[in-house]
Amino acid sequence: MIIEKFVKRLREEGISVDRAILYGSYAAEKARRDSDIDVAIVSKDFGKDRVEEGMALYRIAGKVDTRLEPVPISIEAYEYDTWLPLIYEIKTKGLELIGPQISADFNR
């Protein structure tokens, strides 16, 4: 799976992944052939410089699959900024692929 590869690459680059959440058209099962793959990466490493964090995610995503559209989210923002439309959508409509309650083989 593309997201598994992406998370593995992030971890190889030293980025902690606390949650990986698929959202958007793929999560809603409405993806078309030309759809991007929206994925939120929640990490304790994020929250200092959103632009730099986003650029780092895009650099790594481009090596895995150019359809990936990653969004960096700090743990604090994910927990407390639910009034933001994007975070609200991710929390209410997203599919959590990696998280505290989810054990996956690629979490190593």
Give a quick set of tags describing it.
4-stranded mixed beta sheet, alpha+beta, single chain, 4 helices, Beta Polymerase, domain 2, 108 residues
Helix and strand topology:
Blueprint (H helix, E strand, L loop, with lengths): L1 H11 L6 E5 L13 E7 L6 H15 L3 E7 H6 L4 H9 L1 E4 L10
Helix pairs in contact: 1-2
Descriptive report:
With 108 residues, the protein is of the alpha+beta class. It has one domain (2-101): Beta Polymerase, domain 2, CATH 3.30.460.10. Helix content is 38%, strand content 21%. It has 4 helices and 4 strands. Strands 3-2-1-4 form a 4-stranded mixed sheet. Helix 1 packs across helix 2 (50-64). The longest helix has 15 residues, at 50-64. The protein starts with a helix and ends in a 10-residue tail after the last strand. The mean pLDDT is 93.
Strand fraction equals 15-25%
Mean pLDDT: 93
User: What is the rounded distance between the termini?
Assistant: 16 Å
- CATH structural architecture: 2-Layer Sandwich
Order of helices and strands: HEEHEHHE
Provide a count of the helices.
Answer: 4
- Unreliable segments of 5+ consecutive residues: none
Largest sheet: 4 strands, mixed
Structural class: alpha+beta
CATH topology: Beta Polymerase, domain 2
- CATH C-level: Alpha Beta
**Using DSSP, what is the number of strands?**
4
Overall helicity: 25-40%
User: Rg from C-alpha positions?
Assistant: 13 Å
